[in-house]
């Protein structure tokens, strides 16, 4: 059965991600159309999606959980796109037995596509998460995760206590380095695993999978250098991030791919030349540090949504929708 995902594939066998269409910005500037206000904005996310996951982490890191609300789609992506949970699932969730998503708290829609059509009845793109929704103007501000991440980082600071407004995931002194890193990490790692997994020709797969591991090797070298330099100078813990001693959006953007790597991309997207836990000690240590030690990472990572979504939605890759149990555990303990 040919599903939507295959329609993304080009005749060349390559996967091409569409460009996001809603590109407005929430702004701290007085009089802005999308002014930063508490309670005005809503995030539609999937817990499975690495792009949406970026925005959920930033929302916690920046202390925005009471300021920006969230609805979570069910992990299953079907021919009609993402959906919210139905009444039966809601009853189950209330009993505490399953949490496969939420209802749409703002618009009471059944499907994410209705959110897009409310914003633009002529919308003809894909119905992707994340979506940043403006409850006041009843429209979509943005469906581009990298830009939502930036908005959450800088535009709500006036509304936040100092401990959160001071957190800067895109500090001016590191912007050039962050941009440089993001550039190649996006293309070769974040999107690289998709280009590998959705390749529909052997030679395309062969090229992409090798490329992913070449860039994981590069990241491993970068972190190894940081850890070594850190331990040489003051204390090792000060140099545990991609750009040294400060957590930045580059870490957030890489985390959402690496935390999915062993549990899903390794087998489902056939990125199986090496594993993070066995073959990349520095990358694995960095991953475990973020997950176990830094608030915002573990609580936004849901391995059930992640594993079920990929293995039960991409039926062209896994026609029987059987979700592999391993690797166990999904992520290794800190020590
Ligand atoms: N450029 C977007 C990409 C988002 C994206 O591709 N999301 C996927 C989930 S991982 C999606 O919602 N796909 C649904 C579909 O294509 O039908 C971003 O970074 O925000």
Automatic annotation (TrEMBL):
EC number(s) stated in the UniProt entry for this protein: 1.8.5.1, 2.5.1.18
A GO CC annotation given for this chain: cytoplasm
Active site: 49 (nucleophile), 194 (proton donor/acceptor)
Entry binding sites for glutathione: 82, 126-129, 144-145
Domain GST C-terminal, residue spans: 171-313
Cellular localisation: Cytoplasm
GO BP annotation list: cell wall organization
GO molecular function: glutathione dehydrogenase (ascorbate) activity; glutathione transferase activity
Pfam families: GST_C_2 (PF13410), GST_N_2 (PF13409)
Gene3D superfamilies referenced in this protein's UniProt entry, alphabetically: 1.20.1050.10, Glutaredoxin
Keywords: Cell wall biogenesis/degradation, Cytoplasm, Oxidoreductase, Transferase
Annotated site residue numbers, Lowers pKa of active site Cys: 265, 310
Signal sequence range: none
Reactions it catalyzes: L-dehydroascorbate + 2 glutathione = glutathione disulfide + L-ascorbate; RX + glutathione = an S-substituted glutathione + a halide anion + H(+)
Function as written in the Swiss-Prot or TrEMBL entry: Active as '1-Cys' thiol transferase against beta-hydroxyethyl disulfide (HED), as dehydroascorbate reductase and as dimethylarsinic acid reductase, while not active against the standard GST substrate 1-chloro-2,4-dinitrobenzene (CDNB). May be involved in cell wall organization and biogenesis.
Similarity remark: Belongs to the GST superfamily. Omega family.
PANTHER family: GLUTATHIONE S-TRANSFERASE OMEGA-LIKE 1-RELATED (PTHR32419:SF6), GLUTATHIONYL-HYDROQUINONE REDUCTASE (PTHR32419)
Protein's recorded name: Glutathione S-transferase omega-like 2
Organism field: [Candida] railenensis
């Amino acid at each position: 059965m040919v599903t939507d995902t295959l329609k993304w594939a080009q005749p060349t066998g390559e996967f091409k991600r569409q460009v996001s269409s809603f590109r407005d910005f929430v702004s701290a500037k007085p009089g802005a159309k999308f002014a930063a206000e508490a309670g005005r904005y809503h995030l539609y996310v999937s817990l499975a999606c690495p792009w949406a996951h970026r925005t959920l982490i930033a929302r916690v890191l920046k202390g925005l959980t009471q300021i920006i609300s969230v609805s979570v789609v069910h992990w299953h992506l079907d021919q009609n796109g993402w959906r919210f949970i139905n009444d039966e699932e809601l009853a189950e969730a209330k009993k505490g037995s399953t949490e496969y998503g939420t209802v749409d708290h703002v618009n009471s829609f059944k499907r994410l596509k209705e959110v897009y059509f409310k914003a633009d009845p002529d919308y003809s793109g894909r119905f992707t998460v994340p979506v940043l929704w403006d409850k006041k103007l009843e429209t979509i501000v943005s469906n581009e995760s990298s830009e939502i991440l930036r908005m959450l980082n800088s535009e709500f600071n006036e509304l936040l206590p100092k401990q959160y407004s001071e957190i800067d995931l895109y500090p001016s002194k590191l912007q050039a380095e962050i941009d440089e890193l993001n550039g190649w990490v996006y293309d070769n790692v974040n999107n690289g695993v998709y280009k590998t997994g959705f390749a529909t020709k052997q030679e395309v797969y062969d090229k992409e999978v090798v490329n992913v591991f070449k860039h994981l090797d590069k990241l491993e070298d970068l972190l190894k250098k940081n850890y070594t330099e850190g331990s040489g100078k003051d204390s090792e813990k000060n140099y545990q991030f991609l750009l040294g001693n400060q957590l930045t959006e580059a870490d957030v953007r890489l985390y959402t791919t690496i935390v999915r790597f062993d549990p899903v991309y390794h087998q489902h997207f056939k990125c199986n030349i090496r594993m993070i836990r066995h073959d990349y000690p520095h990358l694995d240590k960095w991953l475990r540090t973020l997950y176990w030690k830094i608030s915002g990472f573990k609580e936004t990572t849901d391995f059930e949504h992640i594993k079920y979504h990929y293995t039960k939605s991409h039926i062209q890759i896994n026609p029987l929708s059987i979700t592999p149990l391993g690797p166990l555990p999904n992520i290794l303990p800190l020590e």
